[in-house]
Every structure is written in structure tokens, then in C-alpha cells.
Amino acid sequence: MRIGLLGTGPWAGMAHAPALHQHTGLDFAGVWGRRPDAAKELADQYGTRAYDDVDALFAEVDAVAVALPPGVQAALAVRAARAGCHLLLDKPLATTVAEGRAVVEAVQETGVASVVFFTSRFVSETTAWITEQAAAGGWFTAHAQWLGALFGGDSDSPFANSPWRREKGALWDVGPHALSVLLPVLGDARRVAAAVPGPGDTVHLVLDHVSGASSTVTLSLSAPPAAAGAAVELRGGAGVSVLPESSEGAVTALVHAADALIAAADTGQPHACDAAFALRVTEILTEAEALLEGGIGTSPTPSRRY
Questions:
Q1: Is 32 a member of any domain?
Q2: Which terminus of the chain faces fewer neighbouring Cβ atoms within 10 Å, N or C?
Q3: Residue 92, preceding bond cis, omega within 30 degrees?
Q4: In terms of domains, do 149 and 220 share one?
Q5: Are residues 98 and 109 both part of a single domain?
Q6: In this model, does residue 302 exceed pLDDT 50?
Q7: CATH code at 151?
Q8: 152: pLDDT confidence band, cut at 50, 70 and 90?
Q9: 305 in a domain, yes or no?
Q10: Measured at the alpha carbon of residue 146, what is the angle toward residues 140 and 149, in degrees to the nearest 5?
Q11: Are both 114 and 125 inside the same structural domain?
């Protein structure tokens, strides 16, 4: 599979480019970015071609991997799909339902495969744990915490000054990670029952799931470094189960995501983390954002199902 990379920022350089380069089933065919000089630098590093024209890249590859802000990603994903390219996208798919739905419709109309890189879903230990807990069932409640220190005053993260993260905060940056673990175990969220702000960009959500279980989710990019980390705990008839720690990094997880894209393209069978699932995550986060912005805190009626 010939694949091109859209994006030249830190995530493209740290994760996407090395994963595409080392994957034995991919031909890393080129890089396009909004900064041509950065595209050439990244392409030269991996012995591939820099493209000035994104449509020229679409015409010469079978698939694209996208490492761009969600507001940029969605429109380009639609163009790539309509050019016949399979899609390896990043989370969140989009930050509006309309943009996310446009991607899904383009995928459905063209028949291309789509995989969205919810990192945890492509980590071996997490994948096995989710499968086991979903099969066990009978969960009563769950709590997920995704706490980062990105917005701490002394953060040296290359993502600390990301404009879209500064604007959208933890809800949209780490919220998709939490939902990608909870939804396959507890089922879809019938509604966001509550959304309450905390310190900095911290938000606390309460979700009502179709299984009858409820979950609470705490998200932040403003936590003290000593408090940062991710944890998920389930409680139910089977007892207590805790998400295991992982030994795999983002590059390995992206290699697994590329495996999933190749399989979906070969078989025509959608992957569980396809654009449609990512749209559902966007819908849930949009509902939570509306509660936070409206100062309501609680949702009186179940959300619409799509």
C-alpha cells in the first residue's frame, strides 16, 4: 500500500513518519504539509518525496495518514476519500458534528477504508483488556481519568502551544482516549448526564450508557506533573477490573493502526475505530461542550442517536 503523510508538526515527526517508514506493508511515498520547507525536511529525513500540491499526492498513493489539527484534517480527509485514498486519521476526527459527518459520508460514498488512531485502542495490552471486559459484561459503573500536565507553566512539551489544544482543551484532546476505552465495554452513551468544569481546563463528565451502566470521566491538561496519568476502573458483577499499564509507545501503536487499515482495505470490513465510531465520539463531546458552555451542567433528556 502506497501511503502519503499529511502534516509536518511534532506528532507527524515523532509518531507518524517513523511508523510509516518502518511498516513492512507500506510504501511511504511522500509528505505534504502547510509549510513546504518543513515537508521537504521531513521527507528528506525518511528518503521520500515532498509534495507541494496535496491533490498530486492523493493521485499517486493508495492511502493517506493525517497528522493535522482536527479542523484541517476533516476537509482534507473528504478530499482524499473522494480521490480514492484510504484514510488513517487522528483523533478527534473533527470538532463539529457537521465536519465529522462529511468525512463519514465521503467514506461511505467512495467505499474507502478508514481507521482513526485512538491510541489506546491499538496498544496490545489495552486491546486485550477491552475485549475481555466487554465479554465479561455486567458492569455497574466505571471511572476514567486522563490527566496531563501540558498546560503547566514549566511544560516543555512540543504540544503545549498547540492552538487547537489551547482552544478546545482536555475535553477534545484526551476525551477521545477515555471514550474509546469506555464505549466498547459499556456500550454507547445514551446521553451526557452531566458536564462540570474543574481547575484550568479540567472537566468532569457523567455518562449514561445503553448497557445500564454509568461512568464518570475526569479530563485535564492542567494537572500538576506529579498527578498526571491515565487510569480506568470498572466495577460490576465480575468484581473490579483496572486498565493495565502498557509497554508499547505511540509508534508501535500506529504500526498496529496501519495493520488495521490494510486489513479493512483488503477485506472491505470496517474496523471498530473507523470514521463512523469517531463521529460518535465527536457527537458525545459536542453534547458535553454544549452543557459546559451553557452552564447547565446536566442534560434532562437522552441525546439523539445517529
A1: yes
A2: C
A3: yes
A4: yes
A5: yes
A6: no
A7: 3.30.360.10
A8: confident
A9: no
A10: 160
A11: no
Across the beta sheet with 27-32, the strand order is 49-51, 27-32, 2-6, 63-66, 86-90, 114-117
Closest CA to 216 of 178, 160, 242: 178
- Give the structural domain span for 259: 2-118+250-274
**Full DSSP string of the chain:** -EEEEE--SHHIIIIIHHHHHH-TT-EEEEEE-SSHHHHHHHHHHTT-EEES-HHHHHHH-SEEEE-S-HHHHHHHHHHHHHTT-EEEEESSS-SSHHHHHHHHHHHHHHT--EEEE-GGGGSHHHHHHHHHHHHH--EEEEEEEEE--TTSTT---TTTT-HHHHHHHHHHHTHHHHHHHHHHHH--EEEEEEEEE-STT-EEEEEEETTS-EEEEEEES-S-GGG-EEEEEEEETTEEEEPPP----HHHHHHHHHHHHHHHHHH-PPPTTSHHHHHHHHHHHHHHHHHHHHT--B-SSPPP--
287 shares a domain with 153: yes
Banded pLDDT at 177 (limits 50, 70, 90):
very high
Domain assignment of residue 300, yes or no: no
Task: Identify which has the larger pLDDT, 7 or 238.
Answer: 7
Residue 224 maps to a domain: yes
CATH number reported for the structural domain that contains residue 68 in this entry: 3.40.50.720
Give the Å distances, CA to CA, from 252 to 19, 20, 238: 7, 10, 31
Q: Is the pTM of this model over 0.85?
A: yes
Residues 222 and 87 both lie in one domain? no
Residue at grid coordinates 462540570: 196
The C-alpha cell at 37 is 520547507
Q: Of the candidates 119, 134, 131, 142, which has an alpha carbon nearest to the alpha carbon of residue 242?
A: 142
pLDDT (0 to 100) of residue 303:
42
